[in-house]
Amino acid sequence: MNTTSVTLSVDLTTEDKIAMGEELVRLDGENIELRAKKKSAMDHYQSLIDYNEELQKLRAAEWRSGKKDVRVECTIEMDYPAGVVNYRHPENGEIVKSRPMEEHERQDALPIDGGTPAAPGVEASA
């Protein structure tokens, strides 16, 4: 004699309905957690993509110009007569940047130069 399995539709008992309701709640909670993990992973990978795209733009611009920006520890020199601050490259000695002195960097006139030193809190007259 041969046998086979057949799917039949049966009525749910009260216990079956309670168990299925609990499973539905559990599955819903798992889906909420999975969606949060998915969003976190997508946000992480999007930030990596954004970083790479910015770096790609920078490298492309450097490649087109044939130059790139590098940070160099320079010597700061105050040129009081000219009223400028110079930044000198440590290896080749060239002035790589200059800017006007700010007010607090300027030197007051000295009495030996024929000037009159200013009192504290008062600007010196040149």
SSE order and pairing:
Elements: H1 14-65, E1 75-79, E2 84-88, E3 95-100
Antiparallel strand pairs: 1-2, 2-3
Description:
- The protein has 126 residues and is of the alpha+beta class.
- It has two domains: 14-67; 75-113, no CATH class.
- Helix content is 41%, strand content 13%.
- It is built from one helix and three strands.
- Strands 1-2-3 form a three-stranded antiparallel sheet, with no helix packed on it.
Features:
about 130 residues; 2 domains; single chain; 3-stranded antiparallel sheet; about 15% strand
Series of secondary-structure elements, N-terminal to C-terminal: HEEE
- Count of the separate structural domains: 2
Shape assignment: rod-shaped
Kindly, what is the distance between the CA atoms of the first and last residues, rounded to a whole number of angstroms? 121 Å
Major β-sheet annotation: 3 strands, antiparallel
Strand order of the biggest β-sheet: 1-2-3
Brief overview:
With 126 residues, the protein is of the alpha+beta class. The protein is built from one helix and three strands, in the order αβββ.
